[in-house]
Amino acid sequence: MEHAQKGNEKKGKITIFFVNTPSSYRTTRSKTSGARFWDRNRHGVVMLVIYGMALLIAVRLFDLMVVRHEVYVALAEGTQSVAAKLFPNRGNIFFQDSRTGGPYAVAMNKDYFVVFADTRAILTDDTAENVAEQLSSIFLYDDEKKFSLFLALNKRTDPYEPVEQKVDEATKEAVEALSLPGIGFIRKSYRFYPEGSLGSHVIGFVGKDAEGNEAGRYGVEGYWDKELAGSGGFLEAAKSATGSLILRNAFQPAEDGAHLFLTIDRTLQHRACDRLRRAMEETRSASASLIIAHPHTGALLAVCSLPDFDPNEYNKADSVDVYNNSAIFTPYEPGSIFKPIAMAAALDQDFMTPDTTFVDSGSRAELCTKPIMNAGQRSYGLQTMTEVLENSVNTGMVFVVEKIGKKVFREYVERFGFGVKEGIDLDKENTGVIRTLWENKGDRVDCYTATASFGQGITATPLQMVSAFGAIANGGKLMKPYVVDRIEYPNGKMKKTQPLEVRQVLQSRSAALLTGMLVSVVQNGYDALGISAYHLAGKTGTAQIPGPGGYIDETIHSFIGFGPVEDPKFVMIIKLEKPQTYKYASNSLAPVFADIAKFILAYYEVPPSEGN
């Protein structure tokens, strides 16, 4: 009698049964059943195998013809084509032209050549000497460099000895025409800046990171390096006995970088920076910077920093310090251009009006260890608040902060964005320092607060100053500055920068009152402007430079302004470090501001202000 026992072994959801039968019976039954199964299903099994093989072939063909089509074509063309599939193209950077609407490439990729020697083909010393002589005449090598090349060519076992990098087409053809033994060429893409030094601090350059890999440095190239660089692909391959590549399973094509379209206007950038350069040379200044922005949006239209550099040859700069964009990187004591910030707080809190009066004695001796004096040690007597700005009266600003108190003054300084980064989309932004306003507790105006009211003892960058004045021009709204207008990705997607309001710093009424006072400053203070057809607002600053134990006998000149005030098209700051030919900014920078402002108004075809 048969006895069946149910087993407890399981695999997945399948239950396995073990049957206790005589072994001879099991063997006979198994063979008989298998034969019968094969007889009945032989045709189906054969067809199943055929269909399976056909499916595998179809999948393989799809993989070869569709999924990896590009890389196999590249393999057929050679290993250099394979590399092109694995290394992405870096995205271009463009300036704009407000008049034509056309973009202008200021950073792009350009093919050059690497000249190399296969020293195995240079069989004698005489041949090596001749090759070194011929190449030296083209590349203008001195005797030392020519001898080094001769030694390199004498290695005789090296299939790749680089001779010269980044060789242009014409030079490559000149070398090629010599038909020198062992000399070959590899085409290679390099970063190219067609405008040279124009906007170099905004653009930056492509250099090397700590690991020696190519990477964007400074400016847009540094800040947006990830977007510009794209992502590299990968290929898993091996070499056959004949040296050809055999593709394995892993292939991922590269994804090119995005293109960046900047808010910088090429024409305005060229004109403004050229005028700034002339001013720097005429005044024999150590450095200079300029920013022009749109007050309603925060978009930067021109940014100049001198001395500048050619990003095509950034390694030839005298010092790495030249890479820093002083317009966003270098904080300084702004001097009298800071006075409208304190005045804005007083107007906004209704502590005073433009006609509030103050009697100037020429000095304030009780707040600091040294008396606070006016420029030129002048005394102005009875002054309105408008006249305090017109005549740039230091003691008048001390009067203002004493009225509003240290706490309110500090609050408005922070609301205008001082002491923090503006968040500009450029690499290497710095922030000024206002910690002296926190030195002593309480609301009493101390020496730090008194001197800060006229821009001394605190620091700011030109970018912070132009953003703050942009808020005054924009009805009290502080806008976030930006330089990238839009990003276009390889897949066709586009990201447009939208103007961002940071906060409402002032009531619109307060901003309008202060604007009127600054118009009066221009009309009554700077005869050199000579732009009577437009209502422009502005303020100069001549700031001492701090040094060990006090201030040195050097100054920084600034001019900041905007207009036309009815509908401002620009806000601009100009700065000169250590000018030698003028004592005050009203003489050194008023003509520069006037020249650039006239050009902007004509360039944008702005009609004259009403009543002019």
Your description of this structure?
By secondary structure, the chain is an alpha+beta fold. It folds into three domains: 12-64, no CATH class; 106-192, Penicillin-binding protein 2a (Domain 2), CATH 3.90.1310; 263-573, 3-Layer(aba) Sandwich (Beta-lactamase), CATH 3.40.710.10. The protein is built from 20 helices and 26 strands. Strands 5, 6, 7, 8, 13, 21 and 22 form a seven-stranded mixed β-sheet that branches. Helix 12 (339-348) crosses helix 18.
Summarize the structure.
This protein is of the alpha+beta class and about 600 residues long. It is about 35% helix and about 25% strand. The chain folds into three domains: about 10-65, no CATH class; about 105-190, Penicillin-binding protein 2a (Domain 2) (Alpha-Beta Complex); about 265-575, Beta-lactamase.
